[in-house]
Amino acid sequence: MADEGIKLIAKNKKASFDYHVEEALEAGIVLSGTEVKALRDGKAQLTDAYAMIERGEVYVFQLHISEYSNKGYANHEAKRTRKLLLHRAEIARLERKVTQKGVTLIPLELYFKRGKAKLKLGLCRGKKLHDKRATIKQRDLERDERS
């Protein structure tokens, strides 16, 4: 991972528990200067974030990037809507899949790749309660095997 110039900023651990990730893809993200500086300090949370397609463009909502501590006169809003950068064909393919019942776009990871901020976006289907219980059981079994 280090040889590709990837620096992980934030990971959505809750997503793998709440959703079945069917497919993952990488998207660029439009940020302001203070947002990039705050990300370099590792100040981001993906817990409640989700993405939607509106008017042929993909946006991420509820992505929390804390305000930059050494701000000047201009700073950013912590939970503003941010645009994702994807090819038109990828957006059209995602839009076809998201129209299916129960499929949604969830941010999985936020990282820098060769100096550019990237968001790993997952095409996810929600888990039922019995699936979540099976995940907990599997995790407990793996923990017992290790110890």
Keyphrases for this structure?
single chain; 147 residues; alpha+beta; Small Protein B, Chain: A; two-stranded antiparallel sheet; 29% helix; 39% strand; globular
Q: Which range best describes the helical content: under 10%, 10-25%, 25-40%, 40-55%, 55-70% or over 70%?
A: 25-40%
Helix/strand order: EHEHEEEEEHEEH
- Shape call: globular
Tally of DSSP β-strands: 9
CATH architecture: Beta Barrel
CATH class: Mainly Beta
Report strand order across the widest sheet: 1-8-9-2-7-5-4
Which structural class do the helices and strands define?
Answer: alpha+beta
Distance between the termini: 28 Å
Query: CATH H level: which superfamily?
Result: Small protein B
Strand content: 35-45%
Number of helical segments with 4 or more residues: 4
Query: Kindly state the mean pLDDT as a whole number?
Result: 86
Rg result: 17 Å
* Number of separate structural domains: 1
Largest beta-sheet details: 7 strands, antiparallel
| CATH topology value | Small Protein B, Chain: A
User: What are the low-pLDDT stretches, counting only 5+ consecutive residues below 50?
Assistant: none
Q: What does this entry look like structurally?
A:
- The chain is built from four helices and nine strands, in the order E-H-E-H-E-E-E-E-E-H-E-E-H.
- The chain has 147 residues and is an alpha+beta fold.
- The chain has one domain (2-146): Small protein B (Small Protein B, Chain: A, Beta Barrel), CATH 2.40.280.10.
- The strands form two sheets. It has a seven-stranded antiparallel beta sheet. It has a two-stranded antiparallel sheet with strand order 3-6.
- Strand 4 (50-54) and strand 5 form a beta hairpin.
- The two termini are 28 Å apart.
- 23% of the residues are buried.
